[in-house]
Each structure stands twice: as C-alpha cells, then as structure tokens.
Amino acid sequence: MSADVIIGCQWGDEGKGKIVDKRVSSYRANARCAGGHNAGHTVIVDGQKYVFHMAPSGLLHSGVYNAIGNGCVIDLKALGSELEGLQKAGVQITPENFGISYGAHVIMPYHVEEERSKLSKSIGTTGRGIGPAYTDKARRSGVRISDLYNIDKPEIRDRVLGIIESRYRIDKERFLLTMEKHYSAGKVKRWLAKALLTSLDKDFDVDPRKVLRELQDAFQPMKQYADDVSYVLNRMLAQGSRILIEGAQGAGLDVDHGTYPNVTSSNTTIGGVLTGLGIEPHQIGRVTGVVKAYATRVGSGAFPTELDNAIGEGIRERGIERGASTGRPRRCGWYDAVQVADAVKKNGVTELAVMKLDVLDEEPGIRLCDSYELDGREARFPASDALLALCKPLFENFDGWMTSTKEARNMKELPKEAKAYLKRLEMLAGVPITYVSVGPDRTQGIEADWL
Ligand code: GDP
Ligand code: IMO
Ligand code: MG
Fold this sequence. Notes:
Layout: E1 3-8, H1 16-23, E2 29-32, E3 41-45, E4 48-52, E5 65-68, E6 73-74, H2 76-88, E7 98-101, E8 105-106, H3 109-114, H4 118-122, H5 130-138, H6 145-149, H7 154-184, H8 190-204, H9 208-219, E9 226-227, H10 229-238, E10 243-246, H11 270-277, E11 284-292, E12 295-297, H12 310-318, E13 331-333, E14 335-336, H13 337-347, E15 351-355, E16 365-374, E17 377-379, H14 385-390, E18 392-399, H15 416-429, E19 433-437, E20 445-447
Parallel strand pairs: 1-10, 1-11, 2-5, 2-10, 5-7, 6-8, 7-9, 11-15, 14-16, 15-19
Antiparallel strand pairs: 3-4, 12-13, 16-17, 16-18, 19-20
Helix pairs in contact: 7-8, 7-9
The structure holds guanosine-5'-diphosphate (GDP), 6-O-phosphoryl inosine monophosphate (IMO) and magnesium ion.
C-alpha cells in the first residue's frame, strides 16, 4: 500500500496544491490522474507563488517523477506555456522527472470553440474545453497523445485527419440545415442568407491538415515526455517506492457523485485515480481528504450554506477567494459537514487536512451545517444539483476565537474555541484530522498531534 492520495472533499480549491507540496518530498512520484488545466493548484514557497494547472505540483522537488496520467485531458499549447513559465522560474524539467501518459486525451481547438456555446456558459465552466474533450473521449472520437506520437503511421494519421475533418463538416452541415429552414420559413431574406453563407463558409472551410500541423508543432517540445505512465508507476510501486496522487477539483464536482449537472466532466473521486493512472488498486493506502474550514464554490450550482452577505464578503476578502485558473470570485459559505461526510465515505478518506483555519480568525460567531432537511425529512448529500438546491441546511453555532492562529505550529497553540470547532469537524467526518493549515506558506501549518 504505497500509493497515497490527496483528494478534494468540497467543490475544489480546498488547498490540495499546498498539501501535495508539503508531503511530496518523501515520495518517488507525484501523479495527476484526472481533469486538465481547469485546475489551479497554488504552492507558496518563501513568498514565491507557483500556480500549477496541468503540471503536477511535485515539480518543485528534485528526485520526484511527475506524471500526467491517461485520465487527464491536455491542452498542448497551455501545457507548453506552463512548462516554459516553470523553467523560467528555475524549475528543471526533463524526461527523468516529468512524463505524460500516451493515453491522455488532447483538448482540440474545436473543443474550446464549443465551450463558447450557451450550455457550458450556463454552468459556468472554466471555458478550457474540458467537457467537449471528455465527450469526444467517451464517444470514441478523441485524439490521444499516443496518436500524435505515432502520427507518421498512415492508419493513425488518417484516423486523426478524419476526426478533424468530420468535426468541421458536421458543424457546417448543421449550420446549412438551420439556414435552409429559416430561409424556407421566410425568417431570413435571400440576400441575408447569401451574405451569411459566404462570410461564415470561410470559418467552416478548415483544412484538417493545417489543424493537425499546429497540433504537431505544439506537441513537438512535449514529445520527449510521452511515456507509459501506468507501467512506470507500477514498476516504482513494485520496487517499493511510494507515489503521491494529486487529485484535482473536488468530490462535489465529480461527474457521478457531484451536484450533476453542475460538475466537471471527469471522476474527481477515488475511482478516477484507478482508471486515470492504471495502478494496482490494492496499492492505495492513505487517502487524505482536503477541506477548507469553511466552503467555497466557483461557477453555478446549489450551495446550501452560501453566505450571500457581509460575512461571505469578509471570508472572500481574507481568504483571497478568487479562482486560481480564471480569477473569478469564489462564492463563500459555512462548512458543510453533510457534504464532507459523503465525500469521506465515497473516497475511503482515512484522514482530513483542514485548510485556511486562519481565515476564520476574525469571525465572532462560526456556524457549520450538520444536517439537511428535504421534504420534512433528514436527507443525505444528493448527487443532484436540483435536489441539493431544495435541501434546507441545519446549523450548529460556535464561538469564534477572535485571535490570530497564523503563528500556531502545534495544537496546543490554538485557541480553545478553534480546537472545539476542529474536534466537531473531526467527529462529523468520522476520520481524524492530521493537518491544520493556518496560512498559505509551506511552513504555516500544524501536524495534528492530538490523536
Ligand atoms: P487547490 O486547487 O485545492 O490546490 O487550491 P487553490 O490553490 O485553488 O486555492 C487555495 C488557496 O488558498 C491558494 O491561494 C492558497 O495559497 C491558499 N491557502 C492554502 N492554505 C491556506 C491557509 O491555510 N490559509 C490561507 N490564508 N490561505 C491558504
Ligand atoms: P482545482 O483542482 C474549483 C468548476 C468550474 C465549473 C465546473 C465545470 O483547482 O480544485 P469545467 O471547466 O471543469 O468543465 O467546469 O467545475 N471547476 C473547478 N472549481 N476548482 C477546480 O479545480 C475546478 N475545476 C473545475 O468552475 O463550475
Ligand atoms: Mg484550485
């Protein structure tokens, strides 16, 4: 049991990057198993801030092999710029410490274009083409890293060109059909239809070979990292090395267990670790569930404990709650123990890391939601956004501590009110808290020693 997992138990942005950075130096490898550059994992070392999107956060540590698993979707240009930025900041990246799975899927330019449509806007996605890329993966019309790696093989090249060509052809046919319908119904005048067709035809007239050439150019610097990640990781495990898996997003955003349809398009929970890396299931050991001492959500969706008031505003300001990927303000609310208990069970969480306790330092009264009521009965966390919106949260009240916790480095240094609050979180989650974070820097935290 040498593969430990870091997993978000809320709606993402719990502070996973910081925990990975804190722990990864005692591991041989760090691996991302799902998602893409919709993630934004912040690591702060001596005041220097790094935000990892697709690259694993362990890259700052020498001797650690950092892998992007087959469960991920990759925007090659975005990854290229991310790696370049890290290299400029002095981070060494070589095939010895970085690998990309042959099985990872490529986010195509038309995936990003598709995200401009109304549907994805309505759930407030990150606009990075994540959903369309996973959709193509599921409907077997995706392009993988292995395809680009082997693009000189005629069968593979033809398949990829065919996929690109059919994508634009279908879009064009759909457009023509709609225009024809509108024209026949007299909704569009002949001159307008003609003008639109002439001008838009250029947009559809895409040469698949040009699209492929651009992809190949973006892939070229990345080719050296392409690897059989599953094999590499399993070999390390067989040799007795330990690996740390860096979850992305959070349980509430899981496509099966989250608040569907306001979720991302991958399994962000423990199942995604196995399918997204192809490691031996029995190797999974510690599963650290990461939670904030309160709750946040970016984008649309139900949020029973949301504080749409001055308290929420205060938390947002003190916690600097802005998306690490998109810069959008995060919605803030009280800690939701019903959500976390559900995530603990579904992920086999063995311990909790509670982050951002310091953000509550100035809060005179703190609340947490310990149960939901739906249709007059107690309800569990529903994997449905519509049902969650109908759940009434029931709260417990706690005295605030009104003093700074930022300098605390062991449990004894925390005010008694903070300890009482954490004890209650622990009880409601049903697993021990092993780490409490009291500031963004690597050094600002407490290895909980009360167990
Ligand atoms: P991730 O996506 O789960 O890695 O989390 P993000 O990086 O998106 O968001 C967490 C934010 O909180 C980052 O800006 C971190 O620097 C910051 N952070 C992490 N731990 C703490 C903490 O204990 N206190 C405070 N004040 N900030 C923290
Ligand atoms: P990390 O790993 C917070 C949210 C988006 C949107 C929904 C779907 O930093 O915790 P997508 O672009 O994935 O199709 O958007 O999921 N979302 C995140 N929210 N943290 C993340 O990642 C997120 N990744 C996606 O805001 O509501
Ligand atoms: Mg984040």
